[in-house]
Fold this protein.
Amino acid sequence: MRVLVTGAAGFIGSHAVEAFTAAGHEVVGFDALLPAVHPDPEAARARILDGVELICADVRDAAAVRGALAGVDVVCHQAAMVGLGLDLNDAPDYAGCNDLGTAVLLAGMSAVGVTRLVLASSMVVYGEGRYDCAEHGRIVPGPRAETDLESGVFEPPCPRCGLPLAPGLVDEDARLDPRNVYAATKAAQEYLATSWARASGGTVAMLRYHNVYGPRMPRDTPYAGVAAIFRSALAAGRAPRVFEDGGQRRDFVHVRDVAAANLAAAAWTGGPHAAPGLGRAFNVGSGTVRTVGDLAHGLAVAHGGPDPVVTGEFRLGDVRHVTADSARLRDELGWRPRVEFAEGLAEFAAAPSGSVCSAVVTAPSASG
C-alpha cells in the first residue's frame, strides 16, 4: 500500500511514518518544514527514515498536493497548526492551515481518485467531556464562570439544579461542542472530510486523539502540550506548575500507540458500521483516566524532581474533564494501547529534548 503522510516530519507524523514503514508499506512524506515549527530543517529531515521520499511543500499548495497524490492508496493527514494558541489573532492562521489546507487536500484527492483518508482530529471537538447529574441524568455543562474559577471552584455544576456532576467517559456519539478556535478548526476538518466522503464515495476514519505525549513532542512554544511544558520545567530544574487543583481528568496516550491507531485506521474500509461515503470517528486514548496532577507527579518522579506545585491558576479556554471511551477503536479495528503510563513517562523524561516540531496535540496550558 502506498501511503501519503502529511506533517511527516512532525511529532505524530514522524511516528506514523515509522509505523507504516515497519508494516511494509511504501510511504511518501509531505511537510512544509516551516521555520516557526522546524527551526532546524536538517534535524526535521533526519526524522524521516532512509528510503522515504519527503516532499517539502505546503498542504495549501494545490499543485504540490496533486503531485504527491500520484499512485497513493490512502492519505494519513497529520499536518495542522496545533494547541489552543495565544488569542484570536491566531484565528486566520488556524483556519488557513487546518481548514483551507484540508480542503485543498480533499479537492486533490477527489481530482486524482484517492478514496481513503485517515484524519487526525482531536478530543477538543467535544469541549467538556461526559457528565451526569444525580437528578437530571446526562448533562452538557456550559462554560465555567470566571468568578467561580477565581474562587477556586473548578468543577462545573449542573446548570439546572446546581448539584455536583459526575464525570465519565465520552464516546464518539457525543455532540461536538468546540470551545476555542483550534477546536473549531478540528471540527470543521471533520465536516469537510465527511462532505468529501459523501461526494466521492470515499471512506474517512477520523481519529480523535486525546492527550498525546512521547518522544519528539513539541516544547518551549505557546502551542506545546502540557506534558512538554512540565518536562521543560523539570529539565530546567524548575517545579512543574499545575493549574487549577490538578484534578483535571485526562487520558494520556503514548505517541507510538497513536501511530499504531493510524496504521489500523488506514486498513479500515467502512465495514458493517459505516458504508463508503459516511466515515466514522474513533477516540484514541489509553482507556485509563488520570489527572493532570498525576502526569506532573509521574514526570517529576521519572526525572528525579523537583516536585510539582499546584498554583490554582486557570485559563478560561480550558475544560475541566474530558476522557476517552476508546471501545470503538478496540472493537472495530482491533487496536490496543501497548505503552504503560509509567514506562512512557520514564522514556519521555529521558528522551533528548530535540527541537520544536509540528504535531497534533491538545491543550497547551498546564491544565492539560
User: Anything to note?
Assistant: The radius of gyration is 20 Å. The longest strand covers residues 116-122.
